[in-house]
Amino acid sequence: MSAFQSPGLPSFDRLLSGPASSPTVLRIAIGARLRKLRDAAGISPAAAAGFIRCTESKISRLECAKVPLKERDVLDLLGLYCADPVEQAAAAELVALSNRPGWWERYDNCVVPNWFDKLIGLQEGASVIWTYELLLIPGLLQTPEYAFAVTEKGFPLADRVDIEARVDLRLERQEILGREDGPRLWALIDSRVVDRQIGTAEDMHRQIMHLVDLMVHPRVTLQIVPEDFVVVGTPVTLIRFPLDVPDVVYLENPLGAQYLDRPKETEHFRALLDPLATTAYSPERTMEFLLDSAERYR
Q: Does residue 47 share a domain with residue 139?
């Protein structure tokens, strides 16, 4: 099985006994399990909605993890779907875990807007993060100085306190790479990103040497993509999970982000990323490229 193939959907008791995950990913896993049970029972969304006295759109939002879960709703639906008592008991505990606040919620909405909140939660529970960046060093790999310079340029109206809060958030997000159960990060970076000076020359030298240091990290794979090979015109992040949660593609834009989880959508972007991974410089060639680039900023 490759890193991007999905296993069968586990039951709630198996989810509970499996590896810990973020509240965001647990909500998605619970919603996916509810949808599977409803389909297996041959019950329509309209019938499920009538049973718990809600709208059909709420059933859709529950199954797609677009609203917080309520224990009563989940248990009533499991009773309708004839789930066994063990699974119902596990579901109640999982719902409680899924409603825990994430560490990032202590930041205000200016620092963590609603559209970005989901990405942090997804990365917290990821097993693999596959990212392609053609504009900037990926956030999970940025040094404090580089992150400050990027934030200062990206938020010209923000004051220093706000900029520092955004940088602090970015650095906290990077802590997942130091966890024993943290995700594997596979970063593909367009060669022009390294040539684009952000901040001072000293900032860039420090940033590039940080990338060099990360290349010995056991769960980080870093490759430079030659500038003459571009098949994706926008930054892309594809996220995988240890639970049987659908792969998610994250596409950011100046006003927000898109999250794609339909198989046809995620397979499309994987098909775009695969050639980049095979055509990108090898780790050895990437190391040489980075060291040469760092010398230019001395």
A: no
List the CATH number of the domain containing 65.
Answer: 1.10.260.40
Give 2-10's long-range contacts (Cβ < 8 A, gap of 24+). Answer: 3/128, 3/184, 3/240, 4/128, 4/238, 4/240, 4/247, 4/270, 6/244, 6/246, 6/247, 7/244, 8/244, 9/33, 9/36, 9/244, 10/243, 10/244
End-to-end CA distance of the chain: 45
CATH number, domain of 217, equals 3.30.870
Model pLDDT for residues 162-209, shown as the tens digit of each residue:
999 999 999 999 999 999 889 999 999 999 999 999 999 999 999 999
Angle at 276 (CA atoms; ends 271, 279), nearest 5 degrees: 125
DSSP reduced 3-state for 53:
coil
Give me the domain span that covers residue 21. 12-98
With a cut of 70, say whether residue 7 has pLDDT above it: no
pLDDT (average), residues 144-169:
94
- Domain for residue 6, yes or no? no
Examine the domain organization and report whether 129 and 234 are in the same domain.
yes
